């Protein structure tokens, strides 16, 4: 009998679980001096896009692509000065958000490893 692969999307609780992570994440981003200046005052649309992107990125339904087309995330971030320090700060905020919502350490570490590649790929400054 073949076992089905379980996705990060499922392990994180589906779209509602990812939304909880995003809701824990963005207050941290807005308090981070390296990141806050890059974000608009009304963070709500950014949070919605991030929920849709992470849902898709972690193996759930392609919500982001259905609304906005191919993610092309590096191109979408080119207008922002993304430094290695900012990527580190972003990852730090995400790690704290995962801890805050109670993602167990082994899953948290696997999620963080999955996010490191894209985070550092966006570095352009």
Mean pLDDT, to the nearest integer, reads 91
Shape: globular
CATH architecture: Orthogonal Bundle
- Terminal-residue CA separation: 50 Å
Overall number of strands: 0
Just give the CATH class: Mainly Alpha
**Gyration radius, rounded:** 14 Å
> How can the largest sheet be summarized?
none
Please identify which CATH superfamily we are dealing with: Globins
Number of domains: 1
Q: What proportion strand? A: under 5%
Low-confidence stretches: none
Total helices: the number is: 7
The CATH topology annotation reads as: Globin-like
Helix content: 55-70%
Query: What structural class results from the helix and strand content?
Result: mainly alpha
Please provide the ordered H/E string of secondary-structure elements: HHHHHHH
Family: Belongs to the truncated hemoglobin family. Group II subfamily.
Organism: Paenibacillus thermoaerophilus
InterPro entries: GlbO/GLB3-like, Globin-like_sf, Globin/Proto, Hemoglobin_trunc
Keywords: Heme, Iron, Metal-binding, Transport
In a nutshell, what does this entry contain?
The protein is an all-alpha fold and 125 residues long. It has seven helices and no strands.
Describe the structure.
The N and C termini lie far apart (50 Å). The chain contains 7 helices and no strands. The mean pLDDT is 91. With 125 residues, the chain is mainly α. The radius of gyration is 14 Å and the shape is globular. The chain has a single domain (21-121), classed as Globins (Globin-like, Orthogonal Bundle). It holds the Pfam family Bac_globin.
């Amino acid at each position: 009998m073949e076992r089905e692969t379980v996705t990060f999307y499922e392990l994180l609780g589906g779209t509602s679980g990812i939304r909880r992570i995003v809701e824990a994440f963005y207050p941290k981003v807005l308090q981070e001096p390296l990141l806050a200046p890059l974000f608009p005052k009304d963070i709500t649309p950014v949070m919605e896009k991030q929920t849709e992107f992470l849902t898709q990125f972690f193996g759930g339904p392609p919500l982001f692509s259905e609304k906005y087309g191919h993610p092309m995330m590096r191109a979408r971030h080119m207008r922002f000065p993304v430094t290695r320090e900012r990527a580190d700060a972003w990852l730090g905020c995400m790690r704290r958000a995962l801890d805050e919502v109670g993602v167990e350490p082994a899953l948290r570490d696997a999620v963080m490893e999955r996010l490191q590649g894209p985070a550092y790929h966006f570095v352009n400054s």
